[in-house]
Amino acid sequence: MNHTEQIELPQAKKAGLHRRLYDWTLHWAHTPYGSIALFALAFCESSFFPIPPDVLLMALAFSLPKKSFKYAAICSVGSVLGGCFGYFIGYQFFAHIGLPILNLYGVTDKFNYVKDKYNANAFAAVAIAGFTPIPYKVFTIAAGVCKINIWTFLIASAVSRSGRFFIVAGLVFLFGPKIKNFIDKYFNIISIAFVVILIGSFILIKLFK
Question: Of 82, 3, 93, nearest to 42 (Cα)?
Fold first, then answer.
């Protein structure tokens, strides 16, 4: 075999690996280390880990709805700090680390799309990053590659990630475990509504300055 050839795992094996990672992520909700695991997961997902922190956030929030907002805060801080790590990867080590990560998940086309969005409006691109199906790691690595202003990145990340996680926490707090199917089915619609409100607010602020 030519050792330069890329070895593709069968689709079933890829799906099986993803499922095992998903189950492994969820199991932390049943341990005393749930909060620590949530922070670590949110941090890692922002730069290289495939499982989004929402799954553990919801599991923890369902188990203790009164702590939903605490879990959302932990998730938000971990995600923003992890985003800084992703930014650093893109800024300093894109060829050696960032590009292999993007290739591993097959999102190089989305990376080019995100770069175009950064060229149009960096703040808006990051601010809506938490509400798109594009993995957040694509946005963080691309931000470093494009060398967007770090403060713009941090503020927009805080808005985007906390907005996403606090929406989930708020729904769980108000409605409990029965809201799970609703979140699974309609979260994208809820997210779009939030983005519209967010962008509309910025437009109003500029108009009435």
Answer: 82
6: which 2 tokens?
């890329």
Structural domain boundaries, residue 101: 11-207
Name the burial class of residue 13, with classes exposed (0-12), middle (13-18) and buried (19+) by CB atoms within 10 angstroms of its CB.
exposed
Residue 45's nearest CA partner among 72, 20, 63, 25 is 25
Residue 2, C-beta contacts closer than 8 angstroms, at least 6 positions apart:
none
Percent of the chain having pLDDT more than 70?
77
The total number of structural domains that make up the chain:
1
pLDDT tens for each residue of 119-155: 888 888 888 877 777 889 999 999 999 999 999 999 9
Tokens of residue 59, six digits: 């599991």
On whether residue 6 sits in a domain, the answer given is no
User: Cα(66)–Cα(33) distance, rounded to whole angstroms?
Assistant: 18
Residue 3 lies in a domain: no
The single residue listed with the structure tokens 């409605």 is 175
Q: What is the pLDDT of residues 77-108, one digit of tens each?
A: 999 999 999 999 999 999 999 999 999 888 88
Distance CA 25, CA 7 (A): 27
